[in-house]
Amino acid sequence: MGFQINTNIGALKAYNALASLNSKSEKAQLRLATQKRINSVADDTSGFNVGKSLEQKVKLMQSAQGNVGSAKDMLATAESQLISIKDMLTQIKSKIADASNPAADKASIVNDIKAIGEEIASAFETTKFNDTSLLVSASGSAPSFSFQTGAASSDTLTINYATSTGGGDLSGTATLTTAGSNAVAGVSVKVNDALGTAGTNVGIADLTTSNISDLLTNLELLETEVDDALGSIGNSVQRLDAKDDFLTSAIANSQASVSRLFDADMATEQLNATKSSIGGQAATAMLAQLNMAPQAVLQLLG
């Protein structure tokens, strides 16, 4: 041991050791308090950047999963109404069959068919999801719905079941010009033909007791388009189910990675805190002793 008293090197070293132990104890205690391994960027710069990027993707995927759910709800609304329309078309066919009976009251049958036709026209006009028309075109082109179904803005699914390219041919730009009461705008030609004037064939709006059987051709064409639209909806729901399953798995895996980066191992941090606390107590005692060491010089001065 040297006999310098102006600078107590040993005490300084003990102080540095105590400061280091206190810093480690404080870090471990902070992690225990926050349950987080990374409490500042300095704790793990690369881990922080990766973790924040994953957190962002998780939030985007959760939003996308909400979009998938909304798309399913929208398709369920359209499907329910299309099934209802198909059932009404079946009702009309049954009444046309009844009209073949010579004893049938054809005038009443015509009125019944027109009433059902009115409801079909109303179904096309009023079927909406959050004020968005599903079976007619308000903009002059067939409705097409695009949903973001992934973390990237380019990861989208376009649904166009009501168009000729997407499945059925229900929605378009046609407007019924007949004087009949079944007028509805923004439908395809086949809907127009079935509900209104149909050239050489008869539409519901122009139905009379003498031309009941002529209505069948247009009804069958419309029913085919309804069936195609329902098939397209079914295919879209299958794709949405697959995307939903993937998003559920991707979100869980990403959250696991975020947890591995940010979450503290509570058992390990408790051990670190206890170890640093005991070490700090020992360092404090040694610092006190080393602070007294220069007093040995007094024996030389006596």
| Distance N to C terminus | 19 Å
Main sheet attributes: strand count, strand direction, barrel closure: 2 strands, antiparallel
Number of structural domains: 2
Q: According to CATH, what is the topology of the largest domain?
A: f41 fragment of flagellin, N-terminal domain
Shape type? rod-shaped
Percent range of helical residues = 55-70%
Instruction: Report the total helices.
Output: 7
CATH class of the largest domain: Mainly Alpha
Structural class by sheet pairing and helices: mainly alpha
Question: Order of helices and strands, N to C?
Answer: HHHEEEEEEHHHH
Number of strands: 6
Give the overall pLDDT as a whole number: 86
CATH homologous superfamily grouping of the largest domain: f41 fragment of flagellin, N-terminal domain
Which key features would you list for this structure?
302 residues; two-stranded antiparallel sheet; mainly alpha; 7 helices; 7% strand; two-stranded antiparallel ribbon; f41 fragment of flagellin, N-terminal domain
What does this molecule look like?
The protein has helices at 9-34, 45-99, 106-126, 189-195, 216-262, 266-292, 298-301, and strands spanning 128-129, 132-133, 145-148, 156-159, 171-175, 185-187. The protein is mostly helical and 302 residues long. It folds into two domains: 9-36 and 264-301; 71-250, f41 fragment of flagellin, N-terminal domain, CATH 1.20.1330.10. The strands form three sheets. A two-stranded antiparallel sheet has the order 1-2. The mean pLDDT is 86.
Concise structural overview:
With 302 residues, this protein is mainly alpha-helical.
